[in-house]
Amino acid sequence: MKQLFLILAAFTINLSAIAQSLPTKTKQKTEQKVNQRADQKIDQGIDAALNKTEESIKNLFKKKSKDGESGSDSLAQDKNAPKVNSGKNVSQTSDFIPGVEVIFSDDFSQDAIGDFPAQWNTTGSGSVVEIDGNNWFQIAHNSIVNPVMDDVLPENSTIQFDLLLVKDGRNSTPFIQFGLTKVRDIIREDLNYNDKFFFNIHRYTESDGKTIEYGLQGDIIGNKSDFPLTSYVNEVLHVDMAVNKTRVRVYLDGQKLIDLPRVLTPDLLNNFFFNNNYVIPATQTPMYIGNVRIASAETDARSLLIKQLMEEGNASTSEIRFAVNSDVIEPASFAIIDQVGKALVSNPNVNLKITGHTDSDGEDADNLALSINRANSVKTYLITKHGISGSRLSIDGKGESSPVQANTTAQGKAANRRVEFTKN
């Protein structure tokens, strides 16, 4: 890569010298061509480096089997593979409540590996990659991406997604940025020079250099140093954002890091973006995002669930989320289950059956077992956290047998991964 940039530098200097001897108009056009051709060569070099990095990332998440052959394995079994963090490093209480009405959802399962995802736009490049059976959106260095949505964000909304914080040998880590902006078209408007609220995560492998900061436009207004960022290397870090008019809150793995009551303006809700930020030298390790969900929060999911349960005797929610292929409850879901617990404490004569449901990915028998185990996790939480007697709670699992939507889209699968409560 270093040799590539030296060659390009010499190439650019020679062409620039030629341009100086030409008439003014011709000189200007020549200089433009010089810059364009240099940029093209740099992009080709970076793409080649990223292709090499992608191969090494895939190899990083493979393990040797007993006979010495290389093969894929589950995240839990491979110590070098990313593991869904269940909140072991942070507080298990959170006031984050996901919005009810989903307006955008993408787990990248509907896109072909190697393609740019269909529901997104970019100023640079990226592609869908598979790591240990899960699809991720790989975003190249110096690339901004955003979900394509018909309307601006509601003034009360939630944004949720996963980051895979990859460490690839000695390669530098990506400068991860995400946030809100007034820019609607990232191709025709320069986001870097427009109004935005941003959140930065950088140098996540370095205990002395880890960076978590936030700001407006190009100015840093605050930072956090107490979050255990380095413990998420080669793991999944779940991010929640809550927008309430001028207020924004950001949570990492269930822990609220910032709560700014008067920082947003209405035009900042025009768009949401991710940015693999430009740095020198260019990072060879891409940025990885997954399981993006944006929803309107005009209705509180907790109050809606309890109201329906008490009035109708039955209610289900897809807002109780679990680690991938696991019965481990994600910390962001605790607040909703807490409301169920409080309702049971206030109504001691009410007994509940808890039923788990999954989407259709995987084998039928595995999904049935997973749905039962997830229902049991919710039951265990209610017993241990709220002191509900186990005799008041029964469990069941339906696996993939009772979908509420088709399992052909990311939104449909997300709706089918749900927990149902029924009064006995």
Explain what this protein looks like in three dimensions.
The longest helix is centred in the N-terminal third of the chain and has 37 residues, at 24-60. The protein folds into three domains: 2-60; 101-296, Exo-inulinase, domain 1 (Jelly Rolls, Sandwich), CATH 2.60.120.560; 301-423, OmpA-like domain (60s Ribosomal Protein L30, Chain: A, 2-Layer Sandwich). It has helices at residues 2-20, 24-60, 301-312, 334-346, 364-386, 410-416, and strands at 63-64, 70-71, 101-106, 120-122, 126-131, 134-139, 143-147, 156-164, 176-181, 196-202, 211-216, 219-223, 236-244, 247-252, 255-260, 271-276, 287-296, 314-317, 352-357, 393-399, 419-423. The protein has six helices and 21 strands. With 424 residues, it is of the alpha+beta class.
Count of discrete domains: 3
> What would CATH call the class of the largest domain?
Mainly Beta
Number-wise, the strands total 21
The whole-number mean of residue pLDDT values reads 82
SS-derived structural category: alpha+beta
The total of helices stands at 6
Radius of gyration: 24 Å
Assembly type of the chains comes to single chain
Determine the N-to-C terminus distance.
66 Å
- CATH architecture grouping of the largest domain: Sandwich
